[in-house]
Amino acid sequence: MKKLLLMTLLISTQVFAITGREVMEKIKTKNQGYIGSNSKMVMTLIDAHGNKVERVMNAKVLENNKKGDKSITSFIKPLDVKGTKLLTWTIKDGANKQWLFLPKFKRVKKINSRNQSGSFMGSEFSYEDIAGQQIDKYKYKLLKDDAAAWTIESKPVDKSGYSKMITIISKDKLNPLSVQYFDRKGELLKESKLENFKAYKANKKTFDLADMITMENKQTKKRSVIKWTERKLGKKHKESSFKSTKLK
After folding, report:
1. How remote is the C-alpha of 28 from its chain's centroid?
2. How far, in Å, CA of 22 to CA of 145, rounded?
3. Comparing C-alpha atoms, which of 223, 173, 180 is closest to residue 198?
4. What is the structure's pLDDT at 76?
5. pTM of the predicted model, to two decimals?
6. Out of 18, 60, 150, 175, which residue is the most buried by the measure of CB atoms under 10 Å away?
7. What is the per-residue pLDDT across 203-221, written as a single tens digit (0 to 9) for each?
8. Which residues contact 14 (CB under 8 A, 6 or more apart)?
9. Which DSSP category does 118 fall into?
């Protein structure tokens, strides 16, 4: 009995050669230096019965490793969402800032921090998901380390729509392969799968990025799929273009 108890204790206190935080630092370093990007994507919304709605988007991103990246996502099809734009400032050491331009009302709406867990344009992606993950906003725990991947638990330090996330990270690509999102009650809410990795080059570096992300809501059975049809890194954008006053 004592021997079994000792074995259980040893397993529960397993020491890894690397910490969860160190893994995230490696990913951060690998994915820095792309300068900026231009992309074209198709987002497909799939309900629980398999019915589909497609939306075409353009996006541009300005990299800023000191303060946080800025991005604008613009809808170009279909007509009912054409002209809608989302501006995101991913703040490194504070709450992210987001603004949504609604052409029908000809006004810019600020998405306050308590609403960033809401659905982005009816999809299974939240505004928080679109803003991305800043490393200092989470505490990390390495759950598993095998030959191909790390499994890491991330818990938000400040306000979030999630109680935690569990991410499987490819050691080869140094990018996530899947992420499980748990709601504030601690129950599994969503899972994203990242596929179709492609090597992109910019600023004398290679970036291995997924060209398809599927987000499935485990509670409602709805899915949203984003596919990149075009993506170019190394693009230089003016910071003045990423202002809420420029959205109209």
Report:
1. 13
2. 13
3. 173
4. 97
5. 0.90
6. 150
7. 999 999 999 999 999 999 9
8. none
9. S
What does the alpha-carbon distance between residue 55 and residue 226 come to, in Å, rounded to a whole number?
A: 9
Please, what is the Cα angle at 246 between 72 and 110, to 5 degrees? 70
Under 8 Å between Cβ of 98 and 127: yes
Are 222 and 50 contacting, i.e. CB atoms less than 8 angstroms apart?
A: no
Q: How far apart are CA 36 and CA 236, in angstroms?
A: 6
C-alpha to C-alpha distance for 19 and 21, rounded to whole angstroms: 5
Lookup: tokens for 101: 């331009």
113 DSSP β-pair partners: none
Q: What pLDDT does 1 receive?
A: 54
pLDDT digits (tens, 9 = 90+) for 12-44: 557 788 999 999 999 999 999 999 999 999 999
pLDDT reported for residue 121? 93
pLDDT score, position 248 = 85
- Beta pairing partners, 37: 61, 233
Per DSSP, the three-state class of 26 is: helix
Alpha carbons 72 and 61: distance in angstroms, whole number: 7
Query: In Å, what is the CA distance from 54 to each residue of 38, 84, 92, 129, 152?
Result: 20, 15, 32, 19, 33
Distance CA 201, CA 123 (A): 30
Half-sphere exposure for 61 (CA within 13 Å, toward CB): 21
Q: Which residues of the chain, if any, have pLDDT below 50?
A: 9-11
